[in-house]
Specification:
Elements lengths: L1 E6 L1 H8 L4 E4 L3 H13 L3 E7 H6 L1 H8 L6 E5 L10 H9 L4
Parallel strand pairs: 1-2, 1-3, 3-4
Length: about 100
């Protein structure tokens, strides 16, 4: 099982230093293309995506998180930041019920 990172230049470079493949995204179209491309390659078991890039395609990422079990998607905070959304908010949005 391999890892793949989708994010900003610094994040992708950092992960490449430990042997993780990845792609840099600067726009929504690049993010969509990278997302679709990595899902086509079944050797990737973990997709690491930065919060900034995930926000570019938020609806797609959230739909995947709550409907698929593989590959595992790990969203990491933007550089110098904290997560802006918590698990409860994501769950409420995904199931349409406030818990």
């Amino acid at each position: 099982m391999e890892y793949f990172v989708i994010g900003d230049e610094d994040t992708v470079l950092g992960f490449s230093l430990v042997g993780v493949s990845g792609t840099t995204c600067r726009s929504e179209s690049e993010a969509k293309s990278a997302w679709n491309s990595v899902l086509e390659h079944h050797e990737y078991g973990v997709i690491i995506i930065t919060e900034d890039v995930a926000d570019m395609i938020r609806e797609t990422v959230d739909r995947f998180l709550f409907s698929e079990s593989f590959p595992l998607v790990v969203e990491i905070p933007r550089k110098g930041g904290k997560f802006s959304r918590d698990l409860r908010e994501l769950t409420n949005e995904a199931i349409g019920v406030s818990i």
